[in-house]
Design goal:
The chain is of the alpha/beta class and 467 residues long. The protein is built from 21 helices and 15 strands.
Length: 467
C-alpha cells in the first residue's frame, strides 16, 4: 500500500450539504491514514461537522473563511440543510467569491498544498487550481451515470433545452427521462443569470480536472465509468465506493440520540423474522404533504407488511404549510406490526439488521449505497435532484429494485401502494439480487478489490506531487 512519507500537502474543499461533506470526510480520513498533510476549507458554521475527524486526526489544519453570502439566501445560512435543495445554486455562487482570498492564502504559505480535492458542485475551483499551477481533483459524491448525464446536458444544452422526453443515445443502455425527472440543476437553470452561469461553468470545468473520484464501485457502474474515461481522455477516473464501508471518523454520529428509542427499535426488530420488515424513510430534507402522509400510512396498513416508519416531528409552521404528520390513531391501529419513529433514526444500523427486507426510499445516492451495503432491496419513490436517475440505475439497469411511486407532489393511490409494497416484500428474486450486489460492494473495498485498488492509485498519484 503506497503512502505519502513526506507529508504531501492537500487542500480539501467540501460543499456544505450533509450528503456531500460526509463522503468527502471519509475519503480525507483515508488520505490521513496514508500520511498526507491535510487542510480543510470551510465556513464558520460548518466547522462542527469536522469534529469527529479532528478528534481522530489532531494534525488536520482548518482554513476558515467567512461565508460571503448571496442576495437570495437568508442572513446566516451557510449549509443547504437550512434552506433545502433551492439553496444549492446561491451557496455555490456565494462560495465562488472566496477565489481571491484562497489565492492570497496560497501565496502566503511556506508549504502550500500541491493539489486541491474539491466537491463537484464547486467546479469553479478547477480554474483556481489551474491558476495556481496545481492539479484540481474533483470528488463526486454521486454515481457515474449521473455525472455522464450532467456532462451531456451542459455540453449540448441547446439541443436538450426544450425537449419533453430526453434520450441519451450516446450513453450505454440509452437512458431516457421525461423532462420533470431530470436533475434539478437542469430544470432550474436560467440562461444568462450570473448565479446559474457559475453553476453551469463549474460543471463544465469539472470535465477538465486532473482526475475524478467517485463514491461508487465497478460492479454497479462499470459501463458509465468506462464511458467517463473515454470522455475525459485519461484513466484517472477512480471509483472508491461505497466510501462509508472504508470510511472512518468522518461520520458524525448524532449526539442527541435517545437511547430508549434505539433500544425499542432493536428489541422490536430482534423479534421479527429475517427479511420481513420494510424500513420507510425519505432522507434528512424531505417532508411529505398531508395527503402523501395519509396515503402512505393507509398503504402501509393495507400492505399487511411489518414496517418501521421514520416521520419527523413537525413544527407549527410546517403543519401550517401543509406538511403532514402521522394521522391520529395510526400507531394504535398497526400496534405490534408497525413502529413509528419521530426522532432521528440510526439508519445504517437499522438497514443492517437481519429483519430488514426492504427500504422505501427517495433514492438519494447515500441512501442507495447504504441499502446496497446492507443487501436490502429498494422500493423507490424518487422525488427530485438526482433521484430519478438513481432509480433508473437500480430498477431498469440493475433490476434489483422496484418503483412504487414517483414525483415530489405525487399522492399514490393507497390501495395500489399497499399492493406494490406487499408484492415487493414477497419477491425473493429481488432480495437475492440485492444480496448479490451487497457481496460485490464488500468485495470491491477488500484488499485487491476494485475500489481498494482505485484508492491505492489516488494515493500513489498524489504522493508523487512535489511542492
Amino acid at each position: 500500500m503506497s503512502s505519502s512519507k513526506n507529508g504531501v500537502h492537500v487542500l480539501i474543499f467540501p460543499f456544505p450539504a450533509q450528503g456531500h461533506i460526509l463522503p468527502l470526510l471519509d475519503f480525507t480520513h483515508q488520505l490521513l491514514l496514508h500520511g498526507f498533510k491535510i487542510t480543510i476549507l470551510v465556513t464558520p458554521k460548518n466547522l462542527p461537522i469536522l469534529d469527529p475527524l479532528l478528534s481522530a486526526h489532531p494534525s488536520v489544519q482548518t482554513l476558515v473563511f467567512p461565508f460571503p453570502g448571496h442576495p437570495s439566501l437568508p442572513a446566516g445560512v451557510e449549509n443547504v440543510k437550512d434552506v433545502g435543495n433551492s439553496g444549492n445554486a446561491p451557496i455555490i455562487a456565494g462560495l465562488s467569491k472566496l477565489r481571491g482570498p484562497i489565492l492570497e492564502w496560497f501565496k502566503a504559505q511556506p508549504n502550500p498544498p500541491v493539489a486541491i480535492v474539491y466537491d463537484f458542485f464547486l467546479g469553479w475551483t478547477q480554474d483556481l487550481a489551474q491558476e495556481l499551477g496545481i492539479p484540481g481533483i474533483v470528488f463526486y459524491t454521486s454515481g457515474g451515470l449521473l455525472v455522464s448525464i450532467l456532462g451531456e446536458i451542459w455540453k449540448n444544452f441547446g439541443s436538450y433545452r426544450d425537449l419533453g422526453l430526453i434520450e441519451f443515445n450516446g450513453l450505454p443502455k440509452s437512458p431516457r427521462f421525461v423532462r420533470e425527472h431530470m436533475p434539478s440543476v437542469f430544470q432550474k437553470y436560467r440562461e444568462g443569470d450570473p448565479t446559474w452561469e457559475i453553476v453551469r461553468n463549474g460543471f463544465i470545468a469539472n470535465g477538465k480536472s486532473f482526475g475524478s473520484i467517485f463514491n461508487t464501485f465497478e460492479a454497479l457502474e462499470s459501463e458509465y465509468l468506462s464511458f467517463l474515461k473515454k470522455e475525459m481522455g485519461h484513466d484517472r477516473v477512480y471509483s472508491i465506493g461505497p466510501i462509508n464501508l472504508v470510511g472512518g471518523p468522518g461520520r458524525n454520529g448524532k449526539s442527541n440520540v435517545d437511547v430508549g428509542v434505539n433500544e425499542r427499535i432493536f428489541t422490536w426488530l430482534d423479534e421479527c423474522d429475517d427479511g420481513s420488515v420494510l424500513y420507510v424513510a425519505f432522507g434528512s430534507q424531505k417532508l411529505l404533504t398531508k395527503a402523501q402522509m395519509e396515503s402512505l400510512t393507509i398503504g402501509l396498513e393495507k400492505s399487511g407488511v411489518r414496517f418501521i416508519l421514520v416521520a419527523k416531528q413537525l413544527t407549527a409552521q410546517q403543519l401550517e404549510e401543509g406538511y403532514g404528520s402521522v394521522p391520529e390513531g395510526f400507531e394504535e391501529s398497526v400496534l405490534g406490526r408497525g413502529l413509528v419513529i419521530k426522532s432521528w433514526a440510526p439508519q445504517v444500523e437499522i438497514l443492517g439488521h437481519r429483519a430488514i427486507g426492504g427500504f422505501l426510499s427517495h433514492c438519494g445516492w447515500n441512501s442507495v449505497l447504504e441499502a446496497i451495503v446492507a443487501g436490502v432491496q429498494i422500493l423507490g419513490w424518487p422525488m427530485e435532484a438526482d433521484q430519478f436517475i438513481n432509480a433508473w440505475l437500480l430498477v431498469e439497469n440493475m433490476k434489483t429494485s422496484v418503483r412504487v411511486c414517483e414525483g415530489a407532489d405525487s399522492v399514490p393511490d393507497p390501495i395500489e401502494l399497499g399492493r406494490r409494497i406487499s408484492d415487493a416484500m414477497g419477491n425473493d428474486l429481488f432480495k437475492e439480487r440485492a444480496k448479490k450486489l451487497r457481496d460485490e460492494a464488500l468485495e470491491a473495498v477488500k484488499i485487491g478489490g476494485s475500489s481498494r485498488r482505485a484508492l491505492d492509485g489516488i494515493v500513489r498519484e498524489l504522493s508523487q506531487l512535489q511542492s
